[in-house]
Design brief:
Low-confidence stretches: none
Distance between the termini: 12 Å
Number of helices: 9
Number of strands: 8
Strand content: 5-15%
Order of helices and strands: EHEHHEEEHHEHEHHEH
Strand order of the largest sheet: 2-6-1-7-8
CATH topology: Rossmann fold
Mean pLDDT: 93
Bound molecules: 2'-deoxycytidine-5'-monophosphate
Oligomer: single chain
Length: 227
């Protein structure tokens, strides 16, 4: 039995997982880890260095040189790739278009899961992703599986992207990218996105952020007393 509390939040792309995870971590004073940012940062490295994803040795060599770090008490999920702050760059369409292929790679997944498990060894934390409740922390005390109407998800993501200067992406492109990622996430061979049997489903199509936070915090509270 683990003595620290782990909250796993999995679900589809742009479901508001990280918004909820950040708010929950902040309200509980837990560490927040955005596992998607790790796959995105690896993707950025592969793109920059033209790493051949089909070449196992090239992937292993690249993974050996990649160092990822989070600011553990920063609820904005700032991530550094070999010391460089890449939080903004990993959210662009270039990385978004390539990340599914990279995150489906077995060696990439093994390396990331190992790092993630290390982060959850002793401290209370909230981690969001696709395989957190199934593969990374099957023994997490609380697991959520988030979902929302695909149109609503695309609109939310589009608004986020459109707010950034110089972004010319259309709503249709965002919708397509999400559909593609849902398909890739749920059908890949290596730890596909599936709901863990003991995960609580949270469909936030018609929920405010506060309602989601209250709902999630309500499920974690009983464990705080035991910790
Ligand atoms: O949550 P996100 O959209 O930032 O994730 C980026 C990509 O990484 C997404 O296509 C799925 C993948 N991912 C994953 O395979 N496993 C995780 N634990 C987190 C993200």
């Amino acid at each position: 039995m683990r003595s620290n509390i782990v909250v796993a939040i999995d679900g589809y792309s742009s479901c508001g997982k990280s918004t909820l995870a950040k708010a929950l971590a902040k309200s509980l004073n837990f560490i927040y880890v955005d596992s998607g940012a790790m796959y995105r940062a690896v993707t950025l490295y592969f793109l920059r260095n033209h790493t051949d994803i089909s070449n196992e040795q090239a992937v292993a060599a690249a993974l050996d040189t990649i160092e990822l770090n989070f600011n553990a008490r920063d609820y904005e999920s700032h991530i550094t790739l070999n010391g460089e702050e890449v939080s903004e760059e990993i959210r662009g369409m270039l990385v978004s278009d390539a990340v599914s292929e990279v995150s489906a790679n077995k060696w990439v997944r093994h390396a990331m899961v190992k790092q993630q498990q290390r982060m959850g060894q002793s401290k209370n934390l909230v981690m969001d992703g696709r395989d957190i409740g199934t593969t990374v922390f099957p023994d997490a005390q609380v697991k959520f599986f988030m979902t929302a109407d695909p149109k609503i998800r695309a609109e939310r993501r589009y608004r986020e992207l459109a707010a950034k200067p110089g972004n010319l992406v259309t709503l249709e492109e965002v919708f397509e990218n999400l559909a593609h990622r849902d398909y890739a996430d749920t059908t890949r061979k290596e730890s596909p996105l599936i709901r863990a049997d003991d995960a609580i489903v949270l469909d936030n199509t018609d929920m405010t952020q506060q309602e989601q936070l209250d709902f999630a915090a309500g499920h974690v509270k009983p464990f705080l007393k035991q910790a």
